[in-house]
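**User:** My hope is that you can spare some time for a protein that puzzles me. As I understand it, each token names a local backbone shape. I would be glad if you read both lines and explained how they fit together. The protein I mean follows directly.
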Amino acid sequence: MLQLKNIGKQFDQKVVLDGIHLDIQAGEIVSLLGPSGSGKTTLLNIILGLTTMDRGKIIFNGEDLTNVPMKRRGFNIVFQDYALFPHLNAYDNIVYGLRNKKGTVTEKELQDYIEFLGLKPHLTKKIGELSGGQKQRVALARTLVTKPKLLLLDEPLSALDGVIKESIKQRIQSIAKEFKLTTIIVTHDPEEALTLSDKILIINEGTIAQFGTPHEIINKPSNDFVEEFILKQLQIKRQNIYHLFGDKNA
């Protein structure tokens, strides 16, 4: 379990996060959702250890990680731009993170990850020869082979569309289930969060607007901001979204 206790952060005089309390169960997919500048990316970076917080605690499986540096937390992230090395082929990108982690995975485990993500036909291709979805899968594989205790994803679907986006959604859900891997996703897209996550944390101006399941957020928005941000942005796709979560008035 990941527990965030009273997380607060300021940049200069601007309060970016204020009083964030959150419990995330093992194996859950949780989306951090909110408009630009709401604080969601800062919260992701605090969990990772990339950004320090001004107050609060981070507890993971009973261990206080508040002052533990990023390299010792055992978490890993897939960045929005994938951060792949263009001069290396797909396979060399996947194993790059293992250079300083000898013995992290066996050869069989490595091949299982590659097979699981459907990358076997693409291993010798340079990054420039891959599609957006293939690049995303390489980035996921490179992260998974390090066996992270927590998987963080920064806007994982923003550069994808159509069938490719749906395929990556399914991969992320399969990863969380198959490896019982707690996964935290930053997104600005309500539809993405609603169809991908077990729970959603909606952040507005650095505070929690609502934390709940997609069904709860669709059917019982906690305040006007949630109603506006979630429902009105989805008006065009209203029937599909409400159908998924059982709103009787849709």
DSSP finds ten helices and ten strands in the chain. The longest strand covers residues 14-24.
